[in-house]
Design goal:
- The structure is a single chain.
- By secondary structure, this protein is mainly alpha-helical.
- The protein has 7 helices and 3 strands, in the order αααααββααβ.
- Strands 1-2-3 form a 3-stranded mixed β-sheet.
- A hairpin with a 2-residue loop joins β1 and β2.
- It is elongated.
- The N and C termini lie far apart (138 Å).
- The mean pLDDT is 77.
Length: 174
């Protein structure tokens, strides 16, 4: 048995990591030499990427064109509010959305219409959490108040026209 360490084992003064790094450098140098013999040397200078300037008449991505249009016209907030109104069920949940509907947004106030007085009362109790949730979607401070409106008209009377004080069909049969 010889006293010299084998090629795979680290020497007494070298750590395994240092031995592995030296082996990797040696293999890389050998691979570069083999590539040079075949005429396939890697480039020394990095490739330059050309980035031509965009002209206003150049085609643009649809999403970027729409964002630019909304920004130019000042429509970002109305579009965001419309998106929230369209996703009302996802924002407030299916139960509340089945009985309420957002109607308008103006000056930081959202008007929500409920289909019964009970749901209107429920929505009034949830108004502060609804303002917080809407501001998460639209940006902080966009919605300042939620105004709730209950049903406007009572049930319509059925039947024909009535005269006050009449006794119905009996008074016509003498």
């Amino acid at each position: 048995m010889s006293a010299e360490p084998s090629a795979g084992a680290p020497g007494p003064s070298e750590s395994p990591a240092a031995k592995g790094a030296a082996l990797a450098r040696e293999k890389l140098a050998q691979a570069k030499a083999d590539a040079a013999k075949r005429g396939q040397l890697p480039r020394r200078e990095p490739r330059r990427r050309s980035s031509p300037r965009r002209d206003a008449a150049d085609p643009q991505l649809l999403g970027r064109a729409i964002r630019d249009l909304l920004s130019d016209r000042g429509w970002e907030q109305p579009v965001a509010v419309g998106g929230v109104f369209g996703r009302w069920k996802e924002i407030v949940g299916p139960d509340l959305a089945a009985h309420t509907k957002p109607e308008t947004f103006a000056d930081g106030e959202v008007l929500v219409v409920a289909d019964s007085t009970a749901w209107a009362t429920q929505l009034r109790m949830l108004a502060s959490s609804l303002v917080r949730r809407l501001n998460e979607e639209l940006g902080d401070g966009t919605v300042q108040r939620v105004r709730v409106r209950g049903p406007q008209n009572g049930p319509k009377p059925t039947g024909g026209l009535r005269v006050t004080g009449s006794r119905g069909p009996r008074d016509t049969y003498g």
